[in-house]
Structure formats: C-alpha cells, structure tokens
Amino acid sequence: TIKTERRKMDKSRAHFREAIKHMPLGVSSNFRYWGDDNTVFVKNGKGARLWDIDGNEYIDYRLGYGPAILGHCNDIVDAAAREAQSVGTVYALGTEKEVTVAKLIKEMMPAAELVRFSNSGTEAVMAALRLARGYTGKDNYVTFEGSYHGLFDASMWTADPEDMKDQTKQPKVIPYGEGIPQLVRQLFWQVPYNDAQRLEEVLKKNHDTIAAVLIEPILGNCCGIPSKPEFIKAVRELCTKYGVLMIVDEVKTGFRVAKGGAQELYGIEADIFTVAKAVANGYPISAIGGKEEILRKYGKGVAHGGTYTAQAMSLAAAEATLTILKDTDALKNIASYGQAMQDGMGKVLTKRGIPHSFTGHQSMSGLFFSAEAPTTYRNWKLSDYTFYDTMAGILIDMGIMCEPDSREPWFISSAHDQKCLEETLGKFEEAVDLTLNE
Ligand code: PMP
C-alpha cells in the first residue's frame, strides 16, 4: 500500500471520484489505477520532476515507463514539435523529415539498413512479427517467459505463477487476461529466459514452422532482468543456424542503454528490431528497423501503414531527441547517475545488513532484496518483494516516484542531477528505516 501520511491527496481523490463516472478505473491504462484512494493525477512535469494536482512534487523514476529520456518538457524537443505543428500534422503523404530521422536511426543502430515508422511499441512489434512471417512464409514464433511486447493477442501470454513453485515443472502458458483467443496459443513456444538449451530444443524440432524468435534483450517488465551475454549471442547464432529471424524488441532499451541500444551493448545485430519509447522523448512514435532484404518486403506483399505513422510532431521531436542523444554524453551521464544511485542505495542497505542486488542496466535498473538478482522470470516471480513494495509505497509518499511494485525498473533521464541524487538517497535511507519498523 502506498502511504499518504506526508502528502495531501484530496484533489486526486476527488478527481478520481469524478473520473470513475466517465472512464473505467478512472484512467486510460489499467496500470495507472493505484486504488480508489491512491490513484495520482498529474498536473505537469519538468526535467526529472513532476507535480500532481494536489501540488505534491516528486522526483520521477518512472518517466512514463521510459520515454522521457531527456526529462519531461525538454525545451529543444518541445520547440521542434511546436514548429512542426505549425505546418500541420498528417497528410497521408510522405514528408522530408522521415528520411532525416531514418538516417539518424541508421547511424546509431547498424542493424537498421532500412527503417519504417509506426506509432507505439505495440504497433512496431506487431508489424515486425508480420514482416518476419511475410518474409519467411512461416506462421509460428518463439517468445520468452516474462517478456512483454505490447497489447496485441500474440504477445499477451505469460507463465502461470502457480506452476512455478515446483521449479522442475514446465509452467502452463496463460493469457494476460480475458479476451485473448485460445487459438493464438497454437502459434508460439514460450521458453525460459537465459536458457539457450531449451531454445535450441524448440528450434531444432520446429524451425520449419517458426518465423521468428522475439526477444527483449533486458526484460523490462519484470524489473529489468538482463540477457546473459552468452545467452543473447547464442540466440543470435541459433536463429541463423535454424533459418529463423531474430526480432530484438528494443522498445525500452533502444536509445537508452547505449546509443546503439542493447544491440550495441551486447555486440549483436538483429534481423529486425523495434524501438519506441526513448525515440522522441515522449511523443508517440516507434520504428521497425532491420536488414534491407527483409524490410523491402514492405512493397512486396506485406501490409503496413496507419493514419498517424510518421506524424509531423513526433518526427520533429524524434529528430531533436536523437540528435541530442547522438551528439552528447547524455546516455553516459544517465548510466553514471544510475551507478551512483545503486552505489548509494547499496551503502545504505549494507550498513543495515540487508541483502540486496541490482538488475538490468544503470539507466533502467531493478532493486532486489536478495543477495542474488533473478536471472529468469521464474526466480523473479518466486522472489520475496514485500520489503520492496512496502518501501516503494513510503518513497512515493516522500516524493520519490518509483514503481509501487517491483515490476518496472527505475528509469533515469539526463535531467536527473546531483541534487536529485542527494535527495533520493537521503529519502531512500529514511524509507528503508521506516520499512524496517513497519
Ligand atoms: N515492447 C516492450 C519491450 C515494452 O516494454 C513495451 C511497453 N512497455 C511494448 C513493447 C509496448 O509498447 P507500447 O506501450 O508503446 O505499445
């Protein structure tokens, strides 16, 4: 539970009572509902901070689940978007800026021989999977336990946590909720993360029907579990060996963990990859990149489009954001901040003899209250996150906006500065002690 001893919530609560009359859960994503009394409504953000409608100030470590890589309301990005607005937004025709942004992506991500734009992460991954199917002429695909690739039916499956208590058992694959057709289940295999041997077994037997292996290089939807370098390299080799395309979903990691995303970090190249969140600092745009021969299938039989693809404001914001990320040390500084934050938190916890570990990348890291960080969805699900959940509720009340459960990593932007760091670590120490006394 999120505490509310230190901040006012009157306006958010009153607004919730109004919102629920008009919108299911009072919000536009189920994840934004934090309970009738705890759902926060934002007034505005600037840099690393945001303010809610009650006037509470927070240092934001959620950043809209990652997009605001340069901080909220970046002046340069917003000015570019405003300028684009003055010439109109959609024409159902091409514009010159698409090529400018495509070139920037190509420059930063070598696997991008060609680029196609979409609007969201979901749309990009959905399009990438169709492209892989169109190119290979095969229907099936492989995903990994604990991954999330968007809202579409093919992606909304997970491993049953009930089955995980017995680690020798293969957990049942279940849909994320109702309304997802069981028929889709016949189209994919779900393999434990960081388990190349199991992947090879599946590919060896079924490669004739498998179009693609769809992988998040860092599982960004269960705290930030990274691929082991030897694992992701093995995935690359196995895909090549068995004639299956490797789709690297860099929606969260792209333009965040390195200028060239996780592909640069791990030294691999995807056949097709997707980027979204950090591309335009919060303006909706995503891209599918990959090998020329594959991408040229658009135009040779594979359908893709959309009214809003390459919409002018998002494109202008993308140009501004990517130019900053490419030409400055923003990502290095983000990683240094992340490291300093981990070191500081680590010190506080070590001093109190609390076992802990950090997962993911410094720019999107998870905090664990066990000496060893989980390496699979199964370990993550079985880990004890009561301490984290209690502490996160206290931190939010103190003005440190982290994820209230350990599902999402802590995201850092280039606007997080020394002042944010000191404030965060001071409040973290206080929150840890309060949690110990709970
Ligand atoms: N892929 C990954 C790895 C993601 O983290 C997400 C969103 N969290 C998506 C795809 C879907 O992106 P969107 O929410 O923009 O549709």
Automatic annotation (TrEMBL):
Pfam family, one: Aminotran_3
Cofactor(s) demanded: pyridoxal 5'-phosphate
Keyword Hydrolase: no
CDD domains: OAT_like
UniProtKB keywords: Aminotransferase, Pyridoxal phosphate, Transferase
Gene3D superfamilies: Aspartate Aminotransferase, domain 1, Type I PLP-dependent aspartate aminotransferase-like (Major domain)
GO molecular function, one term: transaminase activity
PROSITE patterns: AA_TRANSFER_CLASS_3
Keyword Transferase belongs to the record: yes
Family statement drawn from the similarity comment of this UniProt entry: Belongs to the class-III pyridoxal-phosphate-dependent aminotransferase family.
Listed PANTHER family: GLUTAMATE-1-SEMIALDEHYDE 2,1-AMINOMUTASE, GLUTAMATE-1-SEMIALDEHYDE 2,1-AMINOMUTASE 1, CHLOROPLASTIC-RELATED
Protein name: Aspartate aminotransferase family protein
Source organism per UniProt: Dongia rigui
